[in-house]
Amino acid sequence: MSEPKAQPQRYATATNPRALEKRKALRQALLTLLDEKPFEAITIPDITKAAGAGYTTFYRHYPGKDELLEDVATDEINKLIEMVLPILGSGQDDTARMDAALTFCGYINEHRASWSTLLTGGASNKLRAQFIQTAREIQIPQPQGQWLPVDAGVIFGVSSTIELLSWWLMQEQPISAQEFAKIYQHLVITPLCS
Question: Which of 60, 68, 72, 137 lies at 20 to 30 Å from 24 by C-alpha?
Answer without folding.
Answer: 137
